[in-house]
């Protein structure tokens, strides 16, 4: 969990302070100086909004790259000769987020900088959202389209179709309560507490845990298993409101792939920030930031990077039509599920011609993963088709905090009392709503 320290004064007041007290002299007051710590999606989004509002913004990032969790590594095909006239495409591995939720958040953000996101980040809807496969070969595609989803549920669990759509409707109602609060302007003194109180009330009045809601709505153990896996992946809180809302968000707003890879979001946010005059310094901790800032924004997600939780990256010769964009292979009772991200099923630009890029998240060793993909996944010849297996090094984070000179506005992890809704859109929303009033 992050924390929230009360600023000495409200950021908005700070940003308007000088302009309210304009001296009669012609010289305009200097813009407020903002130091943003952390150049992940949250930090870059905050920097863009603040710079668009006239602040002089500097971002310090302790790592050598911007984007935070958004990272990509590119590995060339080791043996294939380059086609005449240029190099073959490399394998591109996105090692962080695999899908964009709530794309309108980024549309708003780009619009704040006077740009149309569609000109810079083409997105493709992911369908099926996830494919779930059990060891006996049973397969459930969580389809994006409502009619296809209903057909799929009717084929597998006809008695749970109504319950599933009721669960989605629960999510819709929870999201209707949560969404305005996430985007609303608030400051450390009052509104965050108000939001927390409201959310607590909502939750207290409706019971706490998602598992109980799920048990009431769905009777099939396998459908419950699939839903639990899905919501657990995007929201670690176990809270019924946010988990049901996540299910609704995925169904209603869709999950999206950014053509060229998720990492392009970070590239584009950096480009816009620099265009607005934001100074971005990598390999810097806040105590190396130089002169005092008027406001310091901490956009530093806490906790160890999850890449260390086990990602096996595989560049595969030939195509894998058995896979879709997101796949989950459930194990026998004593074996954990493995999640296989195969973005080349949606976007062939992420691998050399006729190849696939796979990122497998599992708590298993690489050889065990390949065995499971061979048996449960039907990729029997996978082992001999692997051409690259890059290892991504995660730079250690010294977790330095800013010096005492700054009046710090601490942006917590993107949560509302929950622990880890893994949504970049939330980072982008919260980072800015802590500082600026919502745009109409
Ligand atoms: C494996 C994985 C898969 C995910 N999948 C998805 C997904 O599919 N869809 C989705 O929407 N979300 C997903 N998420 C979550 C998403 O990545 C996060 O919600 C989002 O990236 C958080 O952005 P952030 O800017 O808040 O934090 P971060 O991305 O963590 O950025 C924080 C930055 O601050 C820097 N920093 C920290 N401390 C300091 C310091 N003291 N000084 C200077 N710099 C500092 C860090 O180096 C980092 O660059 C996933 C996350 C992971 C790890």
- Terminal CA distance reads 30 Å
Strand segment count:
17
Characterize the quaternary organization of these chains. Answer: single chain
Order of helical and strand elements: HEHEEEEHEEEHHHHHHEHEEEEEEHHEEH
- How much beta, percentage-wise? 15-25%
What is the level-2 CATH architecture name of the largest domain? Answer: 3-Layer(bba) Sandwich
CATH structural fold name of the largest domain: FAD/NAD(P)-binding domain
Structural class: alpha/beta
How many alpha or pi helices? 13
Helix content: 25-40%
The largest β sheet comes out as:
7 strands, mixed
Low-confidence stretches: 1-20, 184-191, 303-308, 400-408, 412-420, 436-440
- For the record, what CATH class of the largest domain applies? Alpha Beta
CATH H level of the largest domain: which superfamily? FAD/NAD(P)-binding domain
How are strands sequenced across the largest beta sheet? 8-7-13-14-15-12-16
How many domain regions? 2
Coarse shape:
globular
What small ligands are held by the chains?
Answer: flavin-adenine dinucleotide
Average predicted confidence as pLDDT: 79
């Amino acid at each position: 969990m992050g924390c929230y320290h009360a600023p000495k004064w409200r950021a908005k007041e700070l940003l308007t302070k000088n302009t309210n007290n304009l001296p009669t002299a012609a010289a305009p007051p200097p813009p407020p100086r903002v130091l943003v710590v952390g150049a992940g999606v949250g930090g870059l989004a905050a920097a863009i909004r603040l710079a668009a509002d006239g602040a002089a913004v500097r971002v310090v990032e302790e790592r050598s790259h911007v984007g935070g969790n958004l990272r990509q590594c590119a590995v060339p095909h080791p043996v294939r000769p380059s086609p005449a006239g240029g190099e073959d495409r490399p394998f591109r591995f996105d090692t962080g987020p695999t899908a964009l939720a709530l794309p309108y958040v980024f549309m708003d953000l780009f619009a704040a900088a006077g740009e149309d996101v569609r000109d810079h980040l083409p997105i493709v809807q992911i369908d099926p959202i996830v494919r779930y496969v059990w060891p006996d070969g049973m397969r459930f595609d969580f389809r994006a389209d409502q009619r296809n989803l209903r057909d799929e549920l009717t084929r597998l669990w006809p008695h749970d179709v109504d319950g599933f759509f009721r669960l989605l409707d629960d999510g819709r109602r929870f999201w209707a309560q949560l969404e305005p609060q996430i985007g609303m302007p608030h400051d450390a003194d009052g509104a965050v507490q108000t939001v927390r109180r409201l959310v607590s009330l909502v939750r207290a009045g409706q019971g706490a845990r998602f598992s109980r809601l799920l048990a009431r709505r769905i009777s099939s153990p396998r459908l419950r298993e699939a839903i639990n896996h899905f919501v657990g992946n995007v929201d670690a809180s176990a809270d019924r409101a946010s988990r049901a809302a996540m299910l609704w968000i995925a169904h209603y707003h869709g999950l999206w792939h950014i053509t060229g890879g998720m990492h392009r979001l970070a590239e584009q946010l950096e480009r816009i920030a620099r265009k607005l005059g934001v100074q971005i310094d990598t390999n810097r901790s806040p105590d190396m930031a130089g002169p005092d800032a008027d406001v310091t924004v901490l956009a530093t997600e806490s906790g160890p990077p999850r890449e260390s939780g086990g990602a096996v990256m595989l560049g595969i010769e030939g195509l894998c039509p058995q896979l879709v964009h997101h796949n989950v292979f459930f194990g026998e009772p004593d074996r954990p599920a493995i999640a296989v991200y195969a973005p080349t099923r949606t976007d062939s630009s992420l691998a050399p011609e006729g190849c696939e890029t796979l990122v497998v998240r599992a708590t298993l060793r690489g050889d065990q993963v390949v065995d499971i993909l061979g048996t449960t996944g039907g990729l029997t010849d996978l082992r001999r088709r692997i051409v690259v297996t890059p290892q991504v090094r995660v730079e250690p984070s010294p977790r330095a905090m800013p010096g005492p000179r700054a009046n710090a506005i601490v942006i917590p992890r993107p949560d509302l009392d929950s622990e880890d809704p893994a949504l970049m859109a939330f980072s982008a929303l919260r980072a800015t709503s802590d500082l600026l009033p919502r745009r109409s």
